[in-house]
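Database export, one record per block. Field names are fixed; values are copied verbatim from the stored entry.
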Amino acid sequence: SSLTKYVSEYNGRKDSRGVINILNASFSFYMVIGVIIALLSFICALYFDKLFKIEPANILIFRQLFIAAGIFALASWPLSTFRGAIQGMNLWNIDSSVNVFTQILNALVTLAVFSLGYGIVQFFIATKILNILGSVIFYYAGRRRFKFNIQFHYWTVETYKIIFNFSLFKVALFSIIISG
């Protein structure tokens, strides 16, 4: 992602202000994406059964899943910034360790949830909580390596141009590869 690319680039140049700008802009952008996805999830919770044929017994489950997805989108999207930061700082040992740790916990939680007779909603919530835990670990590991403060209101046109120009380049390149 452009977050990883530019954190790596600015970190390599020892440009702490550049890293902080990219982190804040990415966090703010992902916060907006999280709010949009949450709103769409909440709307789906209300109207999903009107668009698709769902067994009446499953409507509550679908609603609960959409509501949970919306709530977790508010946290998981912005917190994903910190995994990109860890990768951009080339802290692959932390990235791998956290991923292994959360995957093992996910497996254990999955076994526990279904063995105890709980359903898909509880499974979804438990795994999302573990994913958020992993992102929080990325946040603290990144802060240990690189002191930064997240500012929710960080909107600079220049920083967003940098991020989106690279992202648009990747989308265009991917489209060419797929169509070719």
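Remark 1: The mean pLDDT is 86.
Remark 2: The CA atoms of residues 10 and 17 lie 8 Å apart.
End of record.
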